[in-house]
Every structure is written in structure tokens, then in C-alpha cells.
Amino acid sequence: MVSLRIVGDSSVQHQNYSRIIKPRKKFAKCLLKEKIDLTIVIRFRMKDSSGKGVTKEMEKNLTSGSVFQNIVWFSLPYLLSYFLQTLYGMADLFIIGQFEGVAGTTAVSIGSQVMHMITVMIVGLAMGSTVSIAQAVGANNKKQASLSVGNTVTLFMGLSVVLSAVLLLFVRPIVTVMSTPEEAVSGTVLYLTICFLGIPFITAYNIISSIFRGLVDSRSPMYFIAVACLANIVLDYLFIGYFHLGPAGAALGTTLAQAVSVVIALIAILKQRSGITLGKSDFRPRRPIMGQLLQIGIPVALQDGFIQIAFIVITIIANRRGLSAAAAVGIVEKMISFLFLVPSSMLSTVSALCAQNIGAGKEDRARGTLRYAIMIAAGFGILVSILIQFIAEPAVGLFTTDATVRMMGGQYIRGYIFDCIFAGIHFSFSGYFCACGRSEFSFIHNIIAILLVRIPGVYLTSKLFPTTLLPMGIATACGSLLSVGICVMVYLWLRKHGTERKKIHG
Fold first, then answer.
1. What is d(CA 430, CA 142) in angstroms, rounded to the nearest whole number?
2. Model confidence at 29: pLDDT above 70
């Protein structure tokens, strides 16, 4: 049979359809007679703003061509976005380490961990908005898209106000639960208080980004985070370096930078010509729509939140070993998040590429994509792990001038860095499981590794080796090693029983 696929602007398709197809009727009949399976991609010329003709192809076929090249092509945008997000989180810690002592660094490291957990859960919830809006846009249902956008704004703005108020009431208990060293308590309370007041800005940025992604625009959110990064760095140097506001200055810089990015995002979304118009009725809460938003978003938010809780538990264990250990672990966690850019990008890349290939019936090609991703992630992890063994202390020293913190941070990262190898492998497997419609396996292996190895291992090594942080770092890597073992067994099970995707009912 002949499969005809036309890509491009609908108006151009309508104008040129007869001229393209009609002269080829005999060719089509021949293909039908011979029962040839063929996909025809029609490219058409449009005029850009300069009046020059340009060829537009609105989608890329990832089921053919070089698997390795497809992985590289697809992962680069994710790498850039992850880099900007990580840079944003590292800026506060880096700058305060240059102007303040250990207490200030510890306050920001603990406070930023709490805020990171809150942020990732908001991002997880916003996933429901992206999916709902994208479905409506894909169905060309502008009214449904408008309702999804309006209800997203209503839901998340209400949620952000309530969340901000509740967290402000419990700021001191949160600091206590984190086992914050006494010297850093006041700074941590001040940092979190200011950041909690800025939660509506965090929420606004993420829902606007989710709306853009739902409208098939992934570049604009990247620009928003780039603006926020630049503003945050400038404001941090102003408030911390010039005015010497310490942790409060770091929090002010972060909050105001988020406010700036929201303003830019609002301007952009007002200029977005998507054909979607919003009226007052679109903002009225609709139970089915909000139910769909939460049904999709809550599981993602809970999974991301649980992973962050594990990191916080490890931080609490480190905090109980004293101020220097707390600062060292906080710095290394930020460094690791940067080094995990490549492994993290593999999850999204493998998920997208394998899903398309499995959907096309090319399961061998999907497995080939997984193999290439594992080699890329593991190769990167091995190189970084070897390099860190030689530059551990100088690398930690970029974030602090304290000699003890540098030494302890060097110990911790020398063990922790091996997690980059194993995490890259199980991230790739997780992407493959999601592509097969079996994302529950990704959740299961993470939970098992956290509960059975990562948290107990860190606790035991902290007690058994009180003079060094190296075993604590190795314990975290062992958790990912268990995940790899589980992933291999699940993969072999899927090979034996087939990789048919679970049906999703809307």
C-alpha cells in the first residue's frame, strides 16, 4: 500500500495538493498494483520574511539513517536546556562561596536542596498541562486547548499561593528536619523565607513553559531559562558581593531573576500566534480538565519528589557530621548534577527515539538505539570518573576557600563520581522502558535502589567511617549499580515476552 505524508503549513498543502498529486496518478496506481510499501514525504517551498524561498520539513523521521547521528542530533537541545537549568542552581552556591564563610555556603546548599525538590515536583505536575494542551492542539481543537490553558493557569496559581503560605508557616520546622548545623540555621531560615515568597514566580515560569511545550515550541522555554540564569548571576554578585547580604542576597537574586523570566515569558506568550484565544470562561475550573491535568502530573511529581527526598536524607546524614561535612556534601551534590547532564539527556533521547522506532515496528533499531546510548553514557562516565580522581580537590575548591571543606568534598566526589557510569546506563534503560509503555519499571528500580542500598548504605558508611566521606560516596554509586542489575533483568524479560506498548486510554 502507499502511505502518503504531507508535511508543512496547511494552507500551502491545500494550494499545491492537486498540482503535486494529479500528475503522479499513474505512478500511484503502479505502486498499488505492486503492493509496494512506500512513505512519500512532500517538501514544499515557502517564502520567509526576506522573500526568499526556503524548504520546510516539519518533522524528522528518526526511524532511518544513522542511529548514532540521530542520538547526537536529538540530545543536543536537551543538553543545552539541562546545562542552563544546572547553571542556574549552581550560581548561588558558587558566588556565595567566594564572598562568605562556611556557614553561608551551608545555608545556601541546604536551602537550595529544599527549593530544588519543590521545583521538580512543580515541573512534574506541569507535565499534565503539556500533554493535555498538546493533545488538543494535535486534534486541532482550539476550544479544548484554550480550556486546558485557562484551567492550567487557574489550578497552578491557586496551588502556588496555598503552597507558599503553608511553607512559610513551616519554614523553621523544615530547617530543623534538615538537621541544619547551628551556625547555618539563621541563614537557611532567611534563604528559605525569601524563596518561599517567590514560589508563585517559580510556578508561573513552569506553567508558561509547559504551555509553550504543549504548543510544540520547546525553544522558547530555553530562552526564558537563559534570561533567568544571566539575571541571577548579575543579581547574586550585586547582592552578595557588593551589598554583602549573604544567604538573603542569594535568595533575593534567585527570586527576582525568576520574576524577570516570568515577565519575558508573558510577553512572549502574548505575541505567540497559535490561533488560541482565551476568554473568562476558559479560566473557570472544569473538573474533567483539572482531573486530567492532575492524573498525568501527580505520578510524575511523586516519583521526582521521592528521588529528591533521598538526596535530602543523605544531606541530613551529612549535616549530623558537622558543618564542614555538610558544606562538602552540598557542594558535591551541585557538581554531580552538572556532570549528570549527559546521562540525564540519554533518558529523554532514548525515550523519544525508541518510541518512534517501536511504533514503526523496528524493534531491532530501538534496541540498537539503546545500545548506542549505553555506550555513550558509560563512556562519558568512565572518562569523567578517571579525571575526577586527579582533580577532585581543585574542582571542589572552585566553590569554597575552606581547606577542610575542599579535602572532605574531594573524598566524597572520588567515590560518588562512579555513579555517573551506572546512572547513565540505568537512565538509558529507563528511557527504553518508557518507549515500550512500561514506565512503571523505571519507577520500581529507582525506589528499590533508594530504599535497599542508597539511603541505608550512606547511613552505615557514615557511622562506620567517621573520618572520611569516601565510603559515603561509594554507597550512592552502589545504589545505581543495583538499578543497572534490575534494568538488565527487566530488559531480558521484555525481550522474551515482547515489547508491545501498553494501551493508554484517554
1. 34
2. no
